[in-house]
Task: structure prediction
Amino acid sequence: MIKSCKRCVYICHNPDMRQAIARGDTDAVVARLDRPACLGLVNIDMANGDGSGNGGPLHMAADGDAEELVAALLDRGALVNATDAAGETALHLAARRGSVGVLSVLLSDPAVQPDQPNARRQIPLEVAVEAGMWACARQLLRSNSAVPIPEPDRYDRLSLTLTLTLTLTLTLTLTLTLTLALTLALTLTLTLTLSLALTLTLSLALTRYDGAPPGGQGGGSSCGALLRGRYREI
Result:
């Protein structure tokens, strides 16, 4: 097994092999991978070889927009969700490059995980949007929409009901509290206004009373003299 891995790494890094993948020469690549030493090893991480971190043949084919080669590698057991040194799958590379055909082939694999994140926590859809590859983004959106969403169980529904009920109760309680506080503030303001008006009225009344003739005697004498003068005229 160790010899097979070494030979597979050697083949993947052989200049002729890399050139064949780069130009999408499916026949040349498959002919090398179908050797007994390489069967089942098409996903070996190239970071284990020269440290480039470029991933295996599937990554190279996806990055090279080699749709037919990608299909051939998947047919020979290439793992569609295998990652390179950056944690990216072939889907990430195809989405960044804008390879709609390669993306279709990869998404047709039953084992594909279109929401698998890379080392930057980006899924292929985010990579496509970041690169401005809108056709790939729409294709990934259609694929993601086909992923079944599990139905929440009764405990989740109960939790949701309790949460909504508690939220509504707290909202109503807060509204009632604010209403009562506003009513109390208006009542207090009205009371203070009436008290101030009454105080001013009493102050004015006392001021007028203080300005009247003292003791009432002067006023009484004047009234008496006036009455006596009228009586004499009669």
